[in-house]
Amino acid sequence: MAKSLFLSRNSSGANVGFGLTRSYWLGMGAIANITTETNAQTTFRTNGTLTNLYVFISTNTNNGTSTYKTRKNVGDGSMSVSITSSTTGKFEDTSNSDAITAGEEWNYQLITGGTSGNIVIRHTGSIYEVSGNVVHRMGAGDISQGFSTASATVFNCIGGSFFWDTVETDVQYKFQTAGTLRNLFIVVSANARGTASTVGTKKNGATTGNLTMSIGASATGIFEDISNTDVVADNDLWVYTLTTGTGTGSITSQNISCEFTTVNNRFHFSCHEEAGVAYGSTLQQVDFASVAGILITRLETEVACQQEANLSMVFSNMEVYVNANTAANNATVRLRKNGNNGTESLSVTASTTGWFEDTAGIDNIAETDLINYSIDLVTLVDQVLNINTFAIMAVATSIKTVNDLAKASVKTINGLAIASIKTVNDLA
């Protein structure tokens, strides 16, 4: 059995009033209030089990009791938590689980009670366990992303915010391990195009991927490619693509995703914003960012972007993509754990753009650890550092002793390197 973690976050939070029902994507990095539940659904194509549903509430002035739960095929799942009046913090269902059967549509849902006040969801997640190799859903979501230009191709990040961008390099995602992309999925909520549009994948700015699907004129709903796959090599750059035909009209989509499976049980977390976030200038010297979700704005307070891991993992290969950099000095990006520096860090060279990666650092993450990134600009004088993507690789583990190696899918000496375990001291 292999585990991965679905972790979603919105740095500004999802604000919900009293007496309302709102739905949310399951397996996406984004959190957004969706009024039509079918627009929040994701079709799962791999049998598995969902456990440990949790939601973090940062603000709660609601005077009643609210419920956050899993949903299957527009019916209630087995997991739910009760959010009591005016209470904030983490709410988790550790008793129940949901069995996922291929072909089912899943999402989260919040039903607020009370007669006054509001609730703000900061982040949410659940653990996904499958038989065999790890399967992790990577996707991007936003409310009503439309595109209307005829005979054009635009691009979207594999994980994070959902925006059809004309600049491919700003939304490319760099994979830190080999694997396979499969089961491409998109929800089209409105479509006034008079001709068919094509959604697919693209590699390294040049190669059209195998995953593809045609969305007919005026067609809406769920579209999938469950037949083709894309082979991913370490350091490949991948994007989703949308190509329109001739004619007029806008096509509007809500979310796009696919499964990423690996033989070494590694998976990725991505925090992304297509335009990037500017750090520096007259702003403070050290800022913070979340490990997964939408990178909407710079955060000056660390607690605002911390996410509870909820799963024991080993982190490695932290990376960032910088699309603009006028900094006169090198900047340092670090993984942070419980308000302290982790092992992983990387230096962003002054006045240099592109991808930067820590290929040596390793951090052991416990279930209760609070994780995030920090960005240290050294000095504020004439510095602007624009980051589009933060990313990191993870493998679930419960290693405490040599006898626990099998739990981390480590069976051979070669496997030790895959799990980033080199000595007995690394087992802790």
Question: How would you describe this protein?
Answer:
This protein is mainly β and 428 residues long. It has three domains: 2-132, Jelly Rolls (Sandwich), CATH 2.60.120; 137-259, Jelly Rolls (Sandwich); 267-396, Jelly Rolls. It is 1% helix and 57% strand. It has one helix spanning 413-418; strands at residues 2-17, 21-24, 42-43, 48-60, 66-72, 75-83, 89-100, 105-111, 118-130, 135-147, 153-156, 160-161, 173-174, 179-191, 197-203, 207-215, 221-232, 237-243, 251-261, 266-280, 286-289, 293-294, 307-308, 313-325, 331-337, 340-348, 354-357, 362-365, 370-376, 384-396. The strands form six sheets. Strands 20, 22, 24, 27, 28 and 30 form a six-stranded mixed sheet that branches. Strands 2, 3, 5, 6 and 8 form a five-stranded antiparallel sheet that branches. β5 and β6 form a beta hairpin. The longest helix has 6 residues, at 413-418. Mean pLDDT is 89; it is low at 399-428.
Report helical residue fraction: under 10%
Q: Characterize the overall form.
A: globular
CATH topology of the largest domain: Jelly Rolls
SS field, number of helical segments: 1
- Structurally, the number of domains stands at 3
The unreliable regions are 399-428
Q: Structural class of the secondary structure composition? A: mainly beta
User: Could you say what the CATH architecture of the largest domain is?
Assistant: Sandwich
Mean pLDDT: 89
For the record, give the distance between the C-alpha atoms at the N and C termini, rounded to a whole number: 22 Å
CATH class annotation of the largest domain: Mainly Beta
Number of strands: 30
Rg of Cα set: 21 Å
Biggest pleated-sheet summary: 6 strands, mixed
Please state roughly what percent of the residues sit in beta strands, choosing from under 5%, 5-15%, 15-25%, 25-35%, 35-45% or over 45%. Answer: over 45%
